[in-house]
User: Fold this.
Amino acid sequence: MKWIDLLKITSNNPVFNTGFLSSMEDPKYIRVQLNRWINQKKIIKLKKGHYMINKPYINEFPWKFHIANFLNQPSYISLESALGFYSLIPEYIPSITSITTGRSGKITNLLGTFIYRHVKGSLFFGYTKIKMKEEAFIAEKEKALIDLFYFNKISKEYIKELRLQNLDTIDFEKLEIYAKKTGKKKILYAVSLLKEFL
Assistant:
Protein backbone atom coordinates (compact mmCIF):
# COMPACT_ATOMS: atom_id res chain seq x y z
CA MET A 1 0.00 0.00 0.00
CA LYS A 2 1.25 3.45 -0.90
CA TRP A 3 1.00 6.45 1.41
CA ILE A 4 -1.38 8.25 -0.93
CA ASP A 5 -3.69 5.21 -0.87
CA LEU A 6 -3.82 5.26 2.93
CA LEU A 7 -4.66 8.97 2.88
CA LYS A 8 -7.52 8.31 0.47
CA ILE A 9 -9.12 5.52 2.49
CA THR A 10 -8.78 7.48 5.76
CA SER A 11 -9.95 10.80 4.35
CA ASN A 12 -13.26 10.67 6.26
CA ASN A 13 -11.78 9.31 9.48
CA PRO A 14 -8.03 9.55 10.21
CA VAL A 15 -8.06 6.80 12.87
CA PHE A 16 -7.74 3.20 11.75
CA ASN A 17 -6.62 -0.27 12.84
CA THR A 18 -4.51 -2.98 11.27
CA GLY A 19 -7.51 -5.26 10.83
CA PHE A 20 -8.97 -2.69 8.47
CA LEU A 21 -5.77 -2.58 6.39
CA SER A 22 -5.04 -6.31 6.49
CA SER A 23 -8.17 -6.99 4.47
CA MET A 24 -6.48 -5.19 1.56
CA GLU A 25 -2.80 -6.12 1.93
CA ASP A 26 -0.56 -8.86 3.30
CA PRO A 27 -0.39 -8.32 7.13
CA LYS A 28 3.42 -8.70 7.21
CA TYR A 29 3.84 -6.03 4.57
CA ILE A 30 1.37 -3.76 6.39
CA ARG A 31 3.39 -4.01 9.63
CA VAL A 32 6.58 -3.00 7.80
CA GLN A 33 4.82 -0.05 6.20
CA LEU A 34 3.25 1.09 9.46
CA ASN A 35 6.61 1.04 11.26
CA ARG A 36 8.14 3.04 8.42
CA TRP A 37 5.35 5.64 8.56
CA ILE A 38 5.66 5.89 12.36
CA ASN A 39 9.40 6.58 12.03
CA GLN A 40 8.65 9.18 9.37
CA LYS A 41 6.06 10.74 11.77
CA LYS A 42 3.36 10.34 9.17
CA ILE A 43 1.18 8.36 11.58
CA ILE A 44 0.84 8.11 15.37
CA LYS A 45 0.53 4.80 17.20
CA LEU A 46 -2.40 5.06 19.63
CA LYS A 47 -2.04 1.54 21.00
CA LYS A 48 -1.19 -1.87 19.56
CA GLY A 49 -2.89 -2.18 16.20
CA HIS A 50 -4.51 1.28 16.36
CA TYR A 51 -3.15 4.32 14.54
CA MET A 52 -3.95 7.83 13.40
CA ILE A 53 -2.80 10.02 10.54
CA ASN A 54 -0.46 12.73 11.85
CA LYS A 55 -0.18 16.41 10.98
CA PRO A 56 0.35 17.98 8.47
CA TYR A 57 -1.59 15.31 6.55
CA ILE A 58 -4.76 16.21 8.46
CA ASN A 59 -5.94 19.72 9.31
CA GLU A 60 -6.46 19.00 13.00
CA PHE A 61 -6.36 16.06 15.37
CA PRO A 62 -9.61 14.16 15.88
CA TRP A 63 -11.63 14.95 18.95
CA LYS A 64 -10.30 12.99 21.94
CA PHE A 65 -13.77 11.65 22.77
CA HIS A 66 -13.87 10.00 19.34
CA ILE A 67 -10.42 8.51 19.94
CA ALA A 68 -11.49 7.21 23.37
CA ASN A 69 -14.45 5.37 21.82
CA PHE A 70 -12.20 3.96 19.09
CA LEU A 71 -9.51 2.61 21.42
CA ASN A 72 -11.85 0.49 23.55
CA GLN A 73 -15.15 -0.78 22.19
CA PRO A 74 -17.82 -0.74 23.42
CA SER A 75 -17.33 2.33 25.59
CA TYR A 76 -18.79 5.76 26.27
CA ILE A 77 -17.35 8.89 27.88
CA SER A 78 -18.50 9.35 31.47
CA LEU A 79 -17.57 10.31 35.03
CA GLU A 80 -15.57 13.55 35.39
CA SER A 81 -14.94 13.80 31.64
CA ALA A 82 -18.66 13.89 30.86
CA LEU A 83 -19.44 16.13 33.83
CA GLY A 84 -16.78 18.58 32.64
CA PHE A 85 -18.19 18.47 29.10
CA TYR A 86 -21.63 19.40 30.45
CA SER A 87 -20.14 22.11 32.74
CA LEU A 88 -21.43 20.33 35.84
CA ILE A 89 -18.02 20.55 37.52
CA PRO A 90 -15.65 23.54 37.40
CA GLU A 91 -12.38 21.62 37.00
CA TYR A 92 -10.57 20.94 33.73
CA ILE A 93 -10.02 17.19 33.38
CA PRO A 94 -6.94 16.43 31.22
CA SER A 95 -7.49 12.67 30.94
CA ILE A 96 -10.52 11.11 29.25
CA THR A 97 -12.46 8.59 31.34
CA SER A 98 -14.87 6.10 29.81
CA ILE A 99 -17.16 3.29 30.91
CA THR A 100 -16.76 -0.09 29.22
CA THR A 101 -18.02 -3.63 29.58
CA GLY A 102 -14.50 -4.72 28.70
CA ARG A 103 -11.43 -4.63 30.92
CA SER A 104 -10.53 -1.66 33.05
CA GLY A 105 -7.26 -0.05 32.08
CA LYS A 106 -5.33 3.01 30.98
CA ILE A 107 -3.86 3.90 27.60
CA THR A 108 -1.31 6.67 27.28
CA ASN A 109 -0.11 7.93 23.91
CA LEU A 110 0.92 11.19 22.25
CA LEU A 111 -2.65 12.50 22.46
CA GLY A 112 -3.02 12.01 26.21
CA THR A 113 -4.32 9.52 28.75
CA PHE A 114 -7.46 7.44 28.25
CA ILE A 115 -8.90 5.66 31.30
CA TYR A 116 -11.49 2.86 31.14
CA ARG A 117 -13.66 1.71 34.06
CA HIS A 118 -15.47 -1.62 33.86
CA VAL A 119 -19.16 -2.15 34.58
CA LYS A 120 -21.33 -5.21 34.05
CA GLY A 121 -23.61 -5.20 31.03
CA SER A 122 -26.74 -4.30 33.00
CA LEU A 123 -25.14 -0.95 33.93
CA PHE A 124 -24.06 -0.11 30.38
CA PHE A 125 -26.87 2.30 29.50
CA GLY A 126 -27.78 5.97 29.57
CA TYR A 127 -25.46 7.25 26.86
CA THR A 128 -26.05 9.12 23.64
CA LYS A 129 -24.26 9.91 20.39
CA ILE A 130 -23.10 13.49 19.94
CA LYS A 131 -21.50 15.07 16.91
CA MET A 132 -19.06 17.94 17.11
CA LYS A 133 -15.85 17.49 15.14
CA GLU A 134 -16.63 13.77 14.99
CA GLU A 135 -19.23 11.48 16.46
CA ALA A 136 -18.73 10.10 19.96
CA PHE A 137 -20.73 8.23 22.55
CA ILE A 138 -21.06 10.04 25.88
CA ALA A 139 -23.11 9.48 29.04
CA GLU A 140 -26.19 11.59 29.53
CA LYS A 141 -25.76 14.07 32.38
CA GLU A 142 -27.77 11.89 34.72
CA LYS A 143 -25.88 8.71 33.88
CA ALA A 144 -22.51 10.43 34.31
CA LEU A 145 -23.57 11.22 37.88
CA ILE A 146 -24.81 7.66 38.45
CA ASP A 147 -21.48 6.28 37.19
CA LEU A 148 -19.60 8.63 39.49
CA PHE A 149 -21.66 7.54 42.50
CA TYR A 150 -21.17 3.89 41.54
CA PHE A 151 -17.37 4.10 41.77
CA ASN A 152 -17.08 6.24 44.91
CA LYS A 153 -17.87 6.13 48.60
CA ILE A 154 -20.90 8.30 49.22
CA SER A 155 -21.30 10.88 51.98
CA LYS A 156 -22.62 14.42 52.29
CA GLU A 157 -19.01 15.63 52.45
CA TYR A 158 -18.20 13.82 49.19
CA ILE A 159 -21.17 15.38 47.39
CA LYS A 160 -20.14 18.81 48.68
CA GLU A 161 -16.51 18.33 47.57
CA LEU A 162 -17.65 17.65 44.01
CA ARG A 163 -18.61 21.36 43.78
CA LEU A 164 -21.34 20.49 41.28
CA GLN A 165 -22.81 23.41 39.37
CA ASN A 166 -25.70 23.98 36.96
CA LEU A 167 -27.77 21.36 38.78
CA ASP A 168 -30.90 22.98 37.37
CA THR A 169 -30.03 21.30 34.05
CA ILE A 170 -30.35 17.83 35.62
CA ASP A 171 -33.52 15.82 35.06
CA PHE A 172 -33.98 14.50 38.60
CA GLU A 173 -36.84 12.22 37.56
CA LYS A 174 -34.54 10.51 35.08
CA LEU A 175 -31.74 10.48 37.67
CA GLU A 176 -33.97 8.59 40.11
CA ILE A 177 -35.07 6.14 37.40
CA TYR A 178 -31.45 5.42 36.55
CA ALA A 179 -30.55 5.08 40.23
CA LYS A 180 -33.31 2.51 40.76
CA LYS A 181 -32.23 0.64 37.63
CA THR A 182 -28.79 0.02 39.17
CA GLY A 183 -30.33 -1.65 42.22
CA LYS A 184 -27.67 -0.01 44.42
CA LYS A 185 -28.84 1.53 47.70
CA LYS A 186 -25.80 3.81 47.92
CA ILE A 187 -26.69 5.37 44.56
CA LEU A 188 -30.25 6.05 45.69
CA TYR A 189 -28.75 7.58 48.83
CA ALA A 190 -26.42 9.75 46.74
CA VAL A 191 -29.35 11.06 44.70
CA SER A 192 -31.23 11.96 47.89
CA LEU A 193 -28.17 13.84 49.15
CA LEU A 194 -27.76 15.64 45.85
CA LYS A 195 -31.31 17.00 46.09
CA GLU A 196 -30.29 18.85 49.24
CA PHE A 197 -27.93 21.00 47.15
CA LEU A 198 -30.65 22.28 44.84
Q: What stands out?
A: The longest strand covers residues 112-118. The mean pLDDT is 94.
